[in-house]
Design brief:
heterodimer; A: 112 residues; mainly beta; seven-stranded mixed β-sheet; B: 108 residues; five-stranded antiparallel β-sheet
Chain lengths: 112, 108
């Protein structure tokens, strides 16, 4: 059984650029959630997708957007990157809504 | 949304010692999970424990849902147990919220 995979593992961008992070959910899982983890803090919920529809959003500006595809993989897009966007971005999938979450290894994004 | 507190914030142990980590919630919990984040940033599922007690090797966890807290027990700690331990939960459909974590260092 393949777990949650994220790509790329590391990424360096400059202020103002745009970035797309990708996540493949665990086999059979239809729900994907994205989190931002700044250094020394716990992960913060960005948003969740269930069967290709957004199903909840945390306190993040609209320049953070996402997609979920028919195969339940997902993308996180961030526009107009700011220095504070430097963080570890984690993706988690679950079998359905309100089920345990399983995390990928994350993408480390650095903004220069 | 739900608020999550964890204690202690930092813990230093000698190898072989036992420890108890605590998680308090401000409201009823639904999908309570404990995670271990290793020094490479990988977040590992330890327990899914909305109520009751579970054990997995040297680790065990207990959640008392009516009193809104959960405990993680680590026995005979090893250096590989070092890292940050997070608890997290949602409140029946609201956002999944993480606590600030307990940073554990196990010394040889």
């Amino acid at each position: 059984e393949t777990g949650v995979t994220q790509s790329p593992t590391h990424l360096i961008k400059t202020r103002g650029q745009q970035v797309t992070l990708r996540c493949s959910s665990q086999s059979g899982h239809n729900t994907v959630s994205w989190y931002q983890q700044a250094l020394g803090q716990g992960p913060q919920f960005i948003f969740q997708y269930y069967r290709e529809e957004e199903n909840g959003r945390g306190n993040f500006p609209p320049r953070f957007s996402g997609l979920q595809f028919p195969n339940y993989s997902s993308e996180l897009n961030v526009n107009a990157l700011e220095l504070d966007d430097s963080a570890l971005y984690l993706c988690a999938s679950s079998l359905a809504l309100n089920q345990p979450q399983h995390f990928g290894d994350g993408t480390r994004l650095s903004i220069l | 949304g739900i608020q999550v507190e964890q204690s202690p914030p930092d813990l230093i142990l000698q190898e072989g010692a036992n420890s108890t980590l605590r998680c308090n919630f401000s409201d009823s919990v639904n999908n309570l999970q404990w995670f271990h984040q290793n020094p490479w940033g990988q977040l590992i599922n330890l327990f899914y424990i909305p109520s009751g007690t579970k054990q997995n090797g040297r680790l065990s966890a207990t959640t008392v849902a009516t009193e809104r807290y959960s405990l993680l027990y680590i026995s005979s700690s090893q250096t590989t147990d070092s890292g940050v331990y997070f608890c997290a939960s949602d409140n029946y459909g609201q956002n999944f919220v993480f606590g600030p974590g307990t940073r554990l260092s196990v010394l040889p």
